[in-house]
Specification:
The protein is of the alpha+beta class. 27% of the residues lie in helices and 27% in strands.
Length: 304
């Protein structure tokens, strides 16, 4: 497995403006925007926004990304948008926002490509137009430093359901490039622990998962102690996404792949983050002539 080499950490404490605390009405939600019960009392704890803002500040992107996040939060409400930040194995940083259209009767319109292109128009151009009769249940927007500098995103992604499984579900994602739908991803969710064996079996015939030892490294016990695992098949690599891991498991994950500002915060303020469950993901592939998978990208997810 690959240990990412990120820029040296400043080790600085959480900035006062980035300390966002839980409120009595705070909703605790995972990266598919489903509610969960906190594993301990959340009173006095930090909101997941604290980690997001802390990392954005460390990357020098708070001023450019936060207005977009704030607009989404104002337009849709608190805990209605999922954030994710990602690093590739060259240390390149990116952000993605995910919006689910299943939280109420108004979601189909408010969380549509059309409505969100208009909402974010003062901040960033998004060249996407979709036939709104398309039954997509989710959409996302990816940003990086290049996108933010030019003021134009590549486009929204939309997600549609495929054949529903006995437990969990699967689906497809498309990049909306102008009016084109470009297939990018097929994904399948496995309920844990009941379907962990099925997922392990699936990895045995996916060429990008590598050898038996490589497959075991991709599904370590400390991450498999979770709620669901999503396996994604993409154009240039595959992915695994682990839902609702404890803060101690997040710390171990960060120490393995992403030593830097996120790990600093977890270690510094762990007691104020123990009430949260986290979602993390890795993209991986096997280089030609090798048998061991290499992690190409790693990310963390929370809610706005």
């Amino acid at each position: 497995m690959t240990l990412f080499r990120l820029p040296p950490s400043s080790g600085s404490v959480l900035h006062t403006e980035d300390a966002v605390y839980e409120q009595p009405q705070t909703l605790h939600r995972d990266y598919v925007l489903q509610d969960y019960d906190p594993p301990c009392d959340p009173t006095g704890g930090l909101h997941p926004l604290s980690l997001f803002r802390h990392v954005l500040r460390a990357e020098g992107l708070l001023d450019s990304v936060w207005p977009i996040a704030s607009s989404l939060r104002s337009f849709l409400g608190a805990e209605q948008t999922v954030w994710g930040f990602k690093y590739d194995n060259q240390g390149q940083f990116g952000v993605e926002f995910y919006l689910y259209r299943n939280q109420g009767p108004e979601d189909a319109h408010r969380k549509s490509v059309e409505a969100l292109v208009e909402c974010l128009k003062p901040l960033i151009e998004i060249p996407s137009e979709v036939d709104e009769r398309l039954p997509y249940f989710m959409l996302s927007l990816e940003l990086n430093k290049e996108v933010l500098q030019r003021g134009q995103a590549d486009g929204f992604r939309v997600y549609t359901a495929a054949d529903r499984r006995v437990a969990g579900f699967d689906g497809l994602s498309y990049l909306v490039a102008g009016r084109q739908l470009l297939l990018e991803n097929y994904y399948c969710f496995y309920g844990i622990p009941n379907e962990l064996g099925e997922l392990r079996q699936r990895l045995t015939y996916l060429p990008r998962a590598g050898s038996a030892s490589s497959q075991k490294a991709l599904l370590p016990d400390y991450l498999s102690d979770c709620h669901t695992i999503c396996q994604a098949t993409k154009q240039r690599g595959d992915g695994l996404y682990f839902s609702r891991i404890r803060t101690s498991a997040l710390e171990r994950f960060l120490a393995t792949y992403l030593p830097g500002p996120a790990l600093d915060l977890i270690q510094e303020r762990q007691a104020e983050l123990e009430h949260l469950l986290w979602d993390i993901g890795i993209d991986y592939s096997v280089a030609f002539g090798t048998t061991e998978a290499s992690v190409r990208k790693a990310g963390i997810y929370g809610v706005l």
